Amino acid sequence: MLSSLLEEYLVHLRHERGRALHTQKTYAHLLERFAAWAERRGRTAWPQITTSDLMDFLEVQRNEWTALGRPPQQPTIYASEVGGTPANAPRKRGTASLYLQVAALRGFFRFAEDEGWVTENPALHLSLPRRWQRVPKALSEVEMARLLEPPANSAEAADLCDHAILELAYASGLRLAELRDIRLEQLHLDAGFVTVIGKGNKERVVPVGRLAVTAIQRYLKEARPRLVTPKSPATVFLTRRGTPFASVTLWLRIKQRVRRCGIERPMTPHMLRHSFATHLLQHGADLRVIQELLGHSSISTTEVYTHVSQQHLRDTHDQFHPRATRRQAAPVGGGKNDTPGESPASATPPNAPPPKGEPV
């Protein structure tokens, strides 16, 4: 059975490469899909796999229509939320899905060759498909201010928990998994920072602002004691049952809070993180500093936020420059009868003869 060797590769990812749990699950699903396809094709051992097999499999994946646009465990998005096209409508797999499939196959066969399972690497010459660079979507500063409005003094424990999560997410740019897994010993609120275990078990130190510190301290003092049970772990944020948040549960709580604040825009799990980085860049933060705060291993990953900043610069130029193409020019002479954008010298005097060549 081809699937019998996959577990060894997943152990390698977990203990030697330090891959995140989400990456491990994704690779396991993708490789099991390929193994099932290859067994239906009559391949019973990894050395039997050829480059032609891999190319045929990827061609099948490219032309396959997904049953649902989103995984079943994620909430359904309706047509009104996405401009008229349901997000769970059947469609072909995108480039990002094929990119992950090729990356999983290349990583597995590289490991298989190193371990001596195969003598030749059939995935050696597989190239990763080019992915479109999507500009991150971020909330505006006005929307963030509305979202981070502090709860009332008589707020429930869940509301204080939600507020602390949102404040920490916007103040530090943590990923959803990092928010979910952060523990009490990682908080250094008196010093104004938190330690974060990110992708690949890499640790980084992220400063936290005064308002976020206040929100977290209020939650720890007033709300968490009401949520904790004898079996509760040391994770900072707990559900109403005193258990750690699952990824889907945490995201649903955030979406509900966003809707209650009157923000109708479709939200993504990374939008708070994008807002953190985008607003820092718009206020003049250095790109290298943002890279360190986000925990990106490569500056090229962080550079995607420069596209958002450039759009902000264009909007500012259009709003304030007197010659901007999308801005109606103000009267130069300041007279009440001046045409906008027309100087008094260029206006036609009342008694002047018509220009030559024009009818009287």
Give structural notes:
With 360 residues, the protein is mainly α. It is 46% helix and 4% strand. The strands form two sheets. Strands 3-4-5 form a three-stranded antiparallel β-sheet, with no helix packed on it. The protein has a two-stranded antiparallel ribbon with strand order 1-2. It is globular. Mean pLDDT is 80; it is low at 67-88 and 329-360.
Layout of secondary structure:
Blueprint lengths: L5 H11 L4 H20 L10 H13 L1 E2 L24 E2 L2 H21 L25 H7 L9 H16 L3 H6 L5 E2 L4 E5 L5 E5 L2 H18 L19 H14 L10 H12 L4 H8 L4 H4 L1 H17 L40
Antiparallel strand pairs: 1-2, 3-4, 4-5
Helix pairs in contact: 1-2, 2-4, 3-4, 6-8, 6-10, 10-13
State the gist of this model:
By secondary structure, the chain is mainly α.
CATH level 3 topology of the largest domain: hpI Integrase, Chain A
CATH class of the largest domain: Mainly Alpha
- Largest sheet properties: 3 strands, antiparallel
Large-scale geometry: globular
Number of domains: 2
Rounded radius of gyration (Å): 28 Å
The secondary structure category is mainly alpha
Give the amount of beta strand, in percent: under 5%
Low-confidence spans: 67-88, 329-360
Relative helix content: 40-55%
Terminal Cα span: 94 Å
Give me the number of helical elements.
13
- Give the H and E element order: HHHEEHHHHEEEHHHHHH
Mean pLDDT: 80
How many E-type strands? Answer: 5
The CATH architecture of the largest domain can be named as Orthogonal Bundle
